[in-house]
Structures are given as structure tokens and as C-alpha cells.
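Sample entry (309 residues):
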Amino acid sequence: MRAYNVPSNSRSSRSYKETISPLPALYSLTFTCVFMNTSESASFLVATFYKFVSLPDYEVWRDPLLQFCVDRHVKGTILLAREGINGTIAGSPQAIEAVFGYLKQNPALEDLSHRESVAPSLPFERMKVKLKSEIVTLGMPEVDPTQQVGQYVDPEGWNRLLQDPSVTVIDTRNDYEVQIGSFQGAINPETQSFRQFPEYVKSHLDPQVHDKVALFCTGGIRCEKATALMLQWGFKEVYHLQGGILNYLASVPPEESLWQGECFVFDDRVALQNGLELGHYQLCSQCGNPIPLGDSPDLRCPNCGGSRE
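Predicted structure, serialized as C-alpha cells:
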């Protein structure tokens, strides 16, 4: 079998770390993947994080967590649900450090890891902490990434996997994200929301035909659920890109990269490119889809009646 640099925490040899707390046994499915762009012009730290873990008391966290962030001028969005936490926040390095110190006081989050990039200005207008039924919405509560997920593949191994003709590579992101960038040879399911991904799998993939399937997304969280779903449905060899596209863009030199285009992000930066440098897109003022910078003087895409220069 071809080697893809599957880390030791892959499904076949994964070692779950039990957290000592008064709650039931908690298992971390996140991994440390911290990187920074060293541009001197950047003045704000952007931190992205998630963890699937049982949080039965998540509702009582909202107000104190929101106030803690607001007091330190941190902006962004954090989602809390019974199944875990998911967020992207931005602020000064000291403020971001303080927020993670605060979160890790809870035993369920003491090993919470995050990824970092930088921005020349705050990419969010305000701070929000939302209570949700899921931290990433698949609409299938029976899919539980704490029970099983696909095998993680690091960026170096991902290049070899992409070049293996026996592997079916699928972009799990929404169509408007895929339109501005994806990996060479990846399939675009043309979904408008992650909720549509299960139907795509039912309609287009077969465990008896598609022996090896590799999935990727922006930061990794969608693939946790997507690979868990596919394993539950009988797919045997399921891989996903460790740390997502952002980790790949931060880790792989441009001359070795198999990424084409830019990566859509859900903040005012809109898109990032190799090395996590700012991209060249803005948002349509009507539908919110990305359009090239300067492509429309009235900030509207062609579908919304915008004109092109």
C-alpha cells in the first residue's frame, strides 16, 4: 500500500487522550497545528479552533465567555453546542492568549488547540457567542466524530495522495467556496450547504466502487463529520487533510503546492493564498459570494446585476 504520511493519531492507530474531570470521559479529536505569518505589517492575531467533546452545560458558558472576550476587545464568532466548541477570533496576541487561558480552565477544554494567522486589521466587526445544536451543521445527530473519523494525512502525504489515481478526492465545502480555489483533480459536489453532503454521498459514491476516498475542507472540522459519516455508511478507506486547506497553504512551499486559486475564509479577509497571505477577493454586497477585487465597481456579482470593468 502506498504511504501517505498518516499521523499516529489516525483511525487505525489513534490514541485517545482521556481528560480527568467530573464529567463523563471526554475525548479530544483536535490536534496542535499552530502557524504564523511573520509579515511585519500584521498587527492582529487570528485564531481558529474546534473540539468535539461532550459539553452538557454549554448554555451557561455563553454570557461569561462573551463578556470576557468583549472586555479584551476580541472579535469573532464562537459556537457552543452539546457536541463541542468551534470558533474563529481575532485580537491582540495578549488578548488571544488570555481567551485560551480562560477556555482551558474548563477541564473539558484543557487540551484545546488552535491555528494562528495574522491580519493587518480586525477581520470581524463584533464578538458573538452563539448556542447551537451542532458546531458544524450536518443535520445528522447520530454522526459522532468522537467515535470514529477518517485517517488524517499531513500536507506532505496529501500531495502523494492527490497523485494516486486510485483515490477519489472530494472537496466538502460549498460551491461558492470551491469556485475560487481547490486542489488539482478534486471533485466539487456543488453543494450549497454542508447539510447536502450526505445526499451527495448517497447519490454519487458507492463503498463497493470507491475503495479510497479523501476529503478536505477549510480547517478540518467539516471533514471530521464527513469522514465519520462515510465510515458509518460502510466506506473502508477514508482520509482527510490534517488541519485543512489553511494548514496546507501555511506548510507547503508554492513551488510544491497542488492547490489552485485561493481559499475562501469566513471573515473580512474573504480569501487567503499560499503562505496565508491576503487574497484578491471581496464579497458581493447582495448575495455575499466572493468576487475578484476591482471586478465590479458597484460590489455586485454578475448574478446580482453587477457590472464588470
